[in-house]
């Protein structure tokens, strides 16, 4: 088969899958993304924030994260906001792993108005030398 047709078919099926996921929505989204740790604390923290923001955007929609306000989008019958690209259902939960730094405070400011509850968790099992911490956001408004 012609390579360009194969690419187009793959693209079409990826787009169908993305639209399907967006329409269905998720009850829980967990981001375990983490950059390859370089040992340069500020660099690793900045990359971790970048990945966390990407997860937040996917979950609640770019405009919501940027505007720092509950979603004012048109909702479909299941309550999903198709035009903003948010993948989390209303009432859904979001968990994001981050590397601790001053910059992660920004996540609290963004998430607090969007969720019923947003809090930080450092599991007891986390090694003492690790800077990993989890943002737990419950109940998307
Ligand atoms: C701690 S591991 C997660 C392991 C995963 N929970 C599993 O069980 O396979 C961190 C992951 O973040 C991913 N990652 C790092 N940078 C990324 C990026 N820019 N986009 C997507 N994933 C990324 C890595 O590929 C790696 O698999």
UniProtKB/TrEMBL annotation:
<comment type="similarity">
    <text>Belongs to the class I-like SAM-binding methyltransferase superfamily. RNA methyltransferase RlmE family.</text>
</comment>
<keyword id="KW-0489">Methyltransferase</keyword>
<dbReference type="GO" id="GO:0008650">
    <property type="term" value="F:rRNA (uridine-2'-O-)-methyltransferase activity"/>
</dbReference>
<feature type="domain" description="Ribosomal RNA methyltransferase FtsJ">
    <location>
        <begin position="20"/>
        <end position="139"/>
    </location>
</feature>
<dbReference type="InterPro" id="IPR029063">
    <property type="entry name" value="SAM-dependent_MTases_sf"/>
</dbReference>
<keyword id="KW-0808">Transferase</keyword>
<dbReference type="Pfam" id="PF01728">
    <property type="entry name" value="FtsJ"/>
</dbReference>
<dbReference type="InterPro" id="IPR002877">
    <property type="entry name" value="RNA_MeTrfase_FtsJ_dom"/>
</dbReference>
<keyword id="KW-0949">S-adenosyl-L-methionine</keyword>
<protein>
    <recommendedName>
        <fullName>rRNA methyltransferase 2, mitochondrial</fullName>
    </recommendedName>
</protein>
<dbReference type="InterPro" id="IPR050082">
    <property type="entry name" value="RNA_methyltr_RlmE"/>
</dbReference>
<keyword id="KW-0698">rRNA processing</keyword>
């Amino acid at each position: 088969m012609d390579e360009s047709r194969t690419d187009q078919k793959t693209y079409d099926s990826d787009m169908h899958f993305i639209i399907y996921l967006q329409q269905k929505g998720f009850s829980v989204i967990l981001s375990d993304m983490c950059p390859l740790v370089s040992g340069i604390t500020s660099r690793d923290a900045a990359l971790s924030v970048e990945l966390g923001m990407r997860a937040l955007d996917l979950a609640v929609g770019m405009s919501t994260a940027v505007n720092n306000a509950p979603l004012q989008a048109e909702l479909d019958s299941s309550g999903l906001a198709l035009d903003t690209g948010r993948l989390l259902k209303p009432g859904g939960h979001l968990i994001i792993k981050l590397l601790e730094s001053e910059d992660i405070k920004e996540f609290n400011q963004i998430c607090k108005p969007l969720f019923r509850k947003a809090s930080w968790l450092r599991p007891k099992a986390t090694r003492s030398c690790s800077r990993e911490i989890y943002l737990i956001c419950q109940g998307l408004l």
